[in-house]
Write a structure and sequence with these properties.
single chain; alpha/beta; Rossmann fold; phosphorelay response regulator activity
Length: 238
């Protein structure tokens, strides 16, 4: 784990210093940035494996930084830091492709656990893990590559994990709480996180995200994945 690099972006030096010390104690190499422009520069030079990003930044705010990082092709995991009352910004950050979030005030130990969880999921599984296929959608789990009609999909860590989970349990209905625990590793938390990620995933794998055929809504329950259902009627929308 000592080789893994984390970029921490926060304009509060006390928060940055505490987070840095906890992450370094856990074996990570840490780079600090205090505003959005510095964050983009540090990202280009440090090439981190994960970014811890405060949304409230001077100059270029965290949402714009997230948008620009997600405009690249490397899919670096992003964990947002948000204040308790910033639910709208948090949801927008998830829509922009952030993988996880921690609400301020937070426990540094909790943040370290979230970092470990996201990086663990971003790591390729053991060789020999079988690919998953559903018609023109093919997922190479070992290489963490998903392709639709031969074109590689730009999926975040959580989107990829969610797709693999769905495809590994076709036809089963899952509550949002079950998905939160199985894919995110949380036994509590804001279930709107799941809703946002499902919406983003549909935008990438469905011909018509407003009338999804693969990831279907089960009203009053949650979602289920229907393989090979490209011509059937959808169960529901978002």
């Amino acid at each position: 784990m000592g080789e893994e690099r984390v970029l921490v972006v926060d304009d509060d030096p006390t928060v940055s210093d505490v987070v840095r010390r906890y992450l370094e104690r856990a074996g990570y190499t840490v780079t600090l940035a205090t505003d959005g422009y510095e964050a983009l520069s540090a990202y280009a030079s440090a090439k981190p494996d994960l970014v811890v990003l405060d949304l409230m930044l001077p100059g270029l705010d965290g949402l714009e930084v997230c948008r620009r990082l997600r405009g690249g092709a490397d899919g670096v995991p992003i964990i947002m830091l948000t204040a308790l009352g910033e639910e709208v910004d948090r949801v927008l950050g998830l829509q922009l492709g952030a993988d996880d979030y921690v609400t301020k005030p937070f426990s540094p130990r909790e943040l370290v656990l979230r970092v470990q969880s996201v990086l663990r999921r971003a790591s390729p599984p053991a060789p020999g893990t079988r690919p998953l296929a559903d018609g023109d959608l093919v997922v190479d789990v070992a290489r963490r590559v998903a392709k639709l009609r031969g074109a590689e999909l730009a999926l975040t860590v959580r989107e990829f994990d969610l797709l693999v989970f769905f495809m590994g349990a076709p036809g089963q209905a899952f509550r949002r709480g079950q998905l939160l625990e199985s894919v995110w590793g949380w036994n509590f938390g804001d279930q709107s996180t799941v809703t946002v990620h499902v919406r983003r995933l549909r935008e990438k794998i469905e011909d018509d995200p407003a009338s999804p055929k693969r990831i279907q809504t089960v009203w009053g329950v949650g979602y289920r994945y229907e393989p090979g259902n490209t011509d059937g009627d959808p169960v529901g929308g978002s």
